[in-house]
């Protein structure tokens, strides 16, 4: 797999050269793909690969496509800094190099994909977590995050002993507010007497709340000091800091996006990760790549919810699965959401 660490703001030609210069196996961008093989690329969100969460889930989908479909994968990391101004150049370079599809990981790629996609009508662009920008060659890969978060709220309300739980959002955006809304509703529907403390790490246009574990740790410590004994963080890489804080306080953490109990980088804290709200970003990425390889590229909105296991609640921690009353409540809530008996809010 080819991995690009950064593409600096030095013009399209130089960016394309950066692609070829870091390619494994020594092929240039023009040479790679000349054998007719399918090439696919993902451009990471803030925090990049190694966040133990959102970006790593996207990488898993690309790795699966390499293994099962014989696809040649390329990864592109975000620029240094929180603004990351190089998205248009990054996507353009990936498309020019023959990658199809080119997938932007996260809603922050929406403006760049809207600008670049029309210039490459034969290339499919995947946009994860956003439906604001559409086009014939744009696939909007979106999830019902609020549904998985509702289940986390049910679990939190069932296990809390202090009747105080916490929610930490990386950046206060409409997407992260979906996580908050579902979680709070799940808590209150299960036990209206449980207090939910809500905190966001940064406000747009500062997106550093997705990339700074120290901010997540400090926020979690504040909630723990205020009596919270379960903390759910939807904060990307910053969420690892909240997990660390909860583990050191011997309280429960709830992970997000990936099954964080099984993330190697969080192994030291895994026993404190009660569960995780999962988004099947991996399969969404894989399915898009497969659709292009099969000659039937996806486009438009492709939504993943509880009914398709596109979101869910992880059961990797044996301590969680042994809590029969908790898991029963979660399963009932899941069935009721799928049946339409519970309508989960998408805004607080």
Automatic annotation (TrEMBL):
Its main location: membrane. It is a lipid-anchor. Residues 45-339 form the ABC transporter substrate-binding protein PnrA-like domain. Residues 1-23 form the signal peptide. PANTHER family: ABC TRANSPORTER GUANOSINE-BINDING PROTEIN NUPN, TRANSCRIPTIONAL ACTIVATOR PROTEIN MED. It comes from Streptomyces tirandamycinicus. This is BMP family ABC transporter substrate-binding protein. Belongs to the BMP lipoprotein family. It holds the Pfam family Bmp. The lineage of its organism: Bacteria, Bacillati, Actinomycetota, Actinomycetes, Kitasatosporales. InterPro entries: BMP_lipoprotein, Peripla_BP_I, PnrA-like. It is found in: Cell membrane. GO terms for cellular component: plasma membrane. Keywords: Cell membrane, Lipoprotein, Membrane, Signal.
């Amino acid at each position: 797999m080819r991995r690009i660490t950064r593409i600096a703001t030095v013009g399209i030609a130089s960016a394309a050269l950066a692609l070829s210069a870091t390619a494994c196996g020594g092929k240039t961008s023009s040479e790679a793909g000349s054998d007719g093989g399918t090439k696919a690329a993902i451009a990471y969100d803030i925090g990049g690969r190694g966040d133990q969460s959102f970006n790593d889930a996207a990488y898993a989908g690309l790795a699966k496509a390499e293994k099962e479909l014989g696809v040649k994968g390329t990864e592109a990391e975000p620029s240094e800094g929180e603004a990351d101004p190089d998205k248009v150049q990054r996507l353009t370079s990936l498309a020019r190099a023959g990658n199809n599809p080119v997938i932007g990981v996260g809603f922050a790629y929406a403006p760049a994909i809207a600008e670049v996609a029309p210039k490459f009508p034969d290339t499919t662009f995947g946009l994860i977590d956003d439906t604001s920008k559409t086009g014939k060659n744009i696939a909007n890969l979106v999830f019902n995050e609020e549904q998985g978060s509702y289940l986390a709220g049910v679990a939190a309300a069932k296990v809390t002993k202090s009747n105080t739980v916490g929610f930490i959002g990386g950046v206060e955006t409409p997407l992260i507010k979906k996580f908050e809304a579902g979680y709070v509703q799940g808590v209150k529907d299960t036990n209206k007497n449980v207090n939910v403390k809500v905190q966001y790490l940064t406000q747009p246009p500062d997106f550093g709340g997705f990339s700074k574990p120290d901010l997540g740790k400090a926020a979690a410590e504040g909630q723990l000091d205020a009596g919270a004994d379960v903390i759910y963080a939807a904060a990307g890489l910053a969420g690892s800091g909240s997990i660390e804080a909860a583990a050191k306080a011997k309280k429960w953490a709830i992970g997000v996006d990936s099954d964080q109990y099984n993330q190697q980088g969080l192994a030291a804290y895994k026993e404190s990760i009660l569960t995780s709200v999962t988004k099947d970003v991996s399969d969404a990425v894989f399915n898009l790549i497969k659709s292009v390889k099969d000659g039937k590229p996806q486009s438009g909105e492709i939504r993943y919810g509880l009914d398709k296991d596109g979101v869910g609640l992880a059961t990797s921690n044996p301590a969680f699965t042994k809590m029969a009353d908790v898991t029963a409540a979660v399963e009932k809530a899941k069935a009721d959401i799928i049946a339409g008996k519970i309508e989960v809010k998408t805004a607080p």
